[in-house]
Amino acid sequence: MAALSGKLTKNLVRTLGPGRHGDGSGLYLVVDPSGARRWIVRVTVKGQRNREGKPLRTDFGLGGADVVTLNEARDRALEYRRLAKRGINPRYNDRQEIPCFEEIARQVHIERLPTWKNPKHGQQWINTLAEYAFEAQRTR
Predict the structure, then answer these.
(1) Helix H segments across 1-140?
(2) C-beta separation of 30 from 68 below 8 A
(3) Are 66 and 37 in contact (CB under 8 A)?
(4) Does the predicted TM-score (pTM) go above 0.85?
(5) 7, 23 contact by CB (below 8 A)
(6) What are the DSSP calls for 44-61, one per residue?
(7) Which domains does the chain have, with CATH numbers?
(8) Which residues share a beta bridge with 28?
(9) Which residues face 58 on adjacent strands?
(10) Across the chain, which distance is largest between two alpha carbons, in Å?
(11) Beta pairing class for 55-64 and 27-31
(12) pLDDT tens, position by position, 20-47
Protein backbone atom coordinates (compact mmCIF):
# COMPACT_ATOMS: atom_id res chain seq x y z
CA MET A 1 0.00 0.00 0.00
CA ALA A 2 1.25 3.46 -0.77
CA ALA A 3 1.73 5.61 2.28
CA LEU A 4 -0.27 8.83 2.42
CA SER A 5 1.52 12.04 3.22
CA GLY A 6 0.34 13.91 6.28
CA LYS A 7 1.36 16.71 8.59
CA LEU A 8 3.90 14.76 10.65
CA THR A 9 7.48 13.98 9.69
CA LYS A 10 9.98 11.47 11.06
CA ASN A 11 11.76 14.27 12.88
CA LEU A 12 8.53 15.58 14.45
CA VAL A 13 7.60 12.06 15.59
CA ARG A 14 10.88 11.91 17.55
CA THR A 15 10.78 15.45 18.98
CA LEU A 16 7.17 16.45 19.68
CA GLY A 17 6.24 17.07 23.32
CA PRO A 18 3.39 15.58 25.34
CA GLY A 19 -0.06 15.66 23.79
CA ARG A 20 -2.11 14.32 20.91
CA HIS A 21 -0.66 15.31 17.53
CA GLY A 22 -2.70 14.82 14.36
CA ASP A 23 -1.26 13.62 11.07
CA GLY A 24 -4.56 13.87 9.22
CA SER A 25 -7.35 11.45 8.30
CA GLY A 26 -7.82 10.34 11.91
CA LEU A 27 -4.20 9.28 12.60
CA TYR A 28 -2.68 10.63 15.80
CA LEU A 29 0.65 10.38 17.59
CA VAL A 30 0.03 10.36 21.35
CA VAL A 31 3.00 11.42 23.45
CA ASP A 32 2.73 10.77 27.19
CA PRO A 33 4.38 13.03 29.79
CA SER A 34 6.85 10.16 30.35
CA GLY A 35 7.91 10.45 26.70
CA ALA A 36 6.25 7.22 25.55
CA ARG A 37 4.90 7.53 22.00
CA ARG A 38 2.12 5.52 20.38
CA TRP A 39 -0.08 5.66 17.30
CA ILE A 40 -3.86 5.68 17.33
CA VAL A 41 -6.45 6.04 14.60
CA ARG A 42 -9.97 7.36 15.15
CA VAL A 43 -12.60 5.88 12.84
CA THR A 44 -16.36 5.85 12.56
CA VAL A 45 -17.63 2.38 11.73
CA LYS A 46 -20.46 2.61 9.21
CA GLY A 47 -23.79 1.73 10.80
CA GLN A 48 -22.64 1.80 14.44
CA ARG A 49 -24.28 4.33 16.76
CA ASN A 50 -23.66 5.51 20.31
CA ARG A 51 -26.39 5.83 22.98
CA GLU A 52 -27.54 9.19 21.65
CA GLY A 53 -27.92 7.74 18.14
CA LYS A 54 -24.92 9.62 16.75
CA PRO A 55 -22.21 7.84 14.72
CA LEU A 56 -19.87 5.96 17.04
CA ARG A 57 -16.25 7.12 16.84
CA THR A 58 -13.69 4.67 18.17
CA ASP A 59 -9.94 4.93 18.74
CA PHE A 60 -7.77 1.95 17.79
CA GLY A 61 -4.17 1.54 18.90
CA LEU A 62 -1.69 0.87 16.10
CA GLY A 63 1.42 0.31 18.22
CA GLY A 64 4.27 2.20 19.77
CA ALA A 65 6.15 4.76 17.69
CA ASP A 66 9.42 2.99 18.56
CA VAL A 67 8.15 -0.15 16.76
CA VAL A 68 5.71 1.19 14.16
CA THR A 69 7.14 3.74 11.73
CA LEU A 70 5.21 6.76 10.46
CA ASN A 71 4.59 5.13 7.07
CA GLU A 72 3.47 1.85 8.67
CA ALA A 73 1.07 3.78 10.93
CA ARG A 74 -0.36 5.57 7.88
CA ASP A 75 -0.81 2.26 6.05
CA ARG A 76 -2.52 0.61 9.04
CA ALA A 77 -4.74 3.66 9.57
CA LEU A 78 -5.78 3.55 5.92
CA GLU A 79 -6.68 -0.15 6.22
CA TYR A 80 -8.70 0.49 9.40
CA ARG A 81 -10.58 3.34 7.67
CA ARG A 82 -11.35 1.09 4.70
CA LEU A 83 -12.74 -1.62 6.99
CA ALA A 84 -14.82 0.90 8.93
CA LYS A 85 -16.22 2.38 5.73
CA ARG A 86 -17.49 -1.09 4.74
CA GLY A 87 -19.16 -1.47 8.15
CA ILE A 88 -16.56 -3.88 9.57
CA ASN A 89 -15.26 -3.11 13.04
CA PRO A 90 -11.43 -3.36 12.88
CA ARG A 91 -11.33 -4.55 16.49
CA TYR A 92 -13.08 -7.79 15.61
CA ASN A 93 -11.76 -8.24 12.09
CA ASP A 94 -8.08 -8.74 12.96
CA ARG A 95 -8.73 -11.89 14.98
CA GLN A 96 -7.46 -15.00 13.28
CA GLU A 97 -9.55 -18.10 12.87
CA ILE A 98 -8.83 -20.54 15.68
CA PRO A 99 -8.64 -24.25 14.81
CA CYS A 100 -11.06 -26.54 16.64
CA PHE A 101 -10.01 -29.21 19.13
CA GLU A 102 -10.41 -32.02 16.60
CA GLU A 103 -8.05 -30.34 14.09
CA ILE A 104 -5.39 -29.83 16.74
CA ALA A 105 -5.77 -33.38 18.13
CA ARG A 106 -5.41 -34.93 14.68
CA GLN A 107 -2.29 -32.86 14.02
CA VAL A 108 -0.79 -33.90 17.38
CA HIS A 109 -1.63 -37.53 16.58
CA ILE A 110 0.28 -37.34 13.28
CA GLU A 111 3.27 -35.67 14.94
CA ARG A 112 3.40 -38.12 17.88
CA LEU A 113 2.82 -41.41 16.04
CA PRO A 114 6.56 -42.21 15.80
CA THR A 115 7.01 -41.71 19.57
CA TRP A 116 4.67 -44.50 20.73
CA LYS A 117 6.31 -47.84 21.39
CA ASN A 118 3.51 -49.59 19.57
CA PRO A 119 1.55 -48.05 16.65
CA LYS A 120 -1.57 -49.64 18.10
CA HIS A 121 -1.34 -47.29 21.13
CA GLY A 122 -1.40 -44.27 18.85
CA GLN A 123 -4.44 -45.61 17.06
CA GLN A 124 -6.20 -46.28 20.38
CA TRP A 125 -5.45 -42.72 21.47
CA ILE A 126 -7.03 -41.07 18.43
CA ASN A 127 -9.94 -43.57 18.38
CA THR A 128 -10.79 -42.74 22.00
CA LEU A 129 -10.79 -39.02 21.22
CA ALA A 130 -12.89 -39.61 18.10
CA GLU A 131 -15.46 -41.63 20.01
CA TYR A 132 -15.81 -39.45 23.12
CA ALA A 133 -14.39 -35.96 22.53
CA PHE A 134 -14.96 -35.27 18.84
CA GLU A 135 -18.56 -36.50 18.91
CA ALA A 136 -19.31 -34.49 22.05
CA GLN A 137 -17.93 -31.40 20.37
CA ARG A 138 -20.11 -31.87 17.27
CA THR A 139 -23.32 -32.30 19.27
CA ARG A 140 -22.96 -28.97 21.08
Answers:
(1) 10-15, 70-85, 90-93, 101-112, 119-128, 135-138
(2) no
(3) yes
(4) no
(5) yes
(6) EEEEEE-TTSSEEEEEEE
(7) 10-93 (3.30.160.390), 101-138 (no CATH)
(8) 22, 40
(9) 43
(10) 67
(11) unpaired
(12) 999 988 999 999 999 999 999 999 888 8
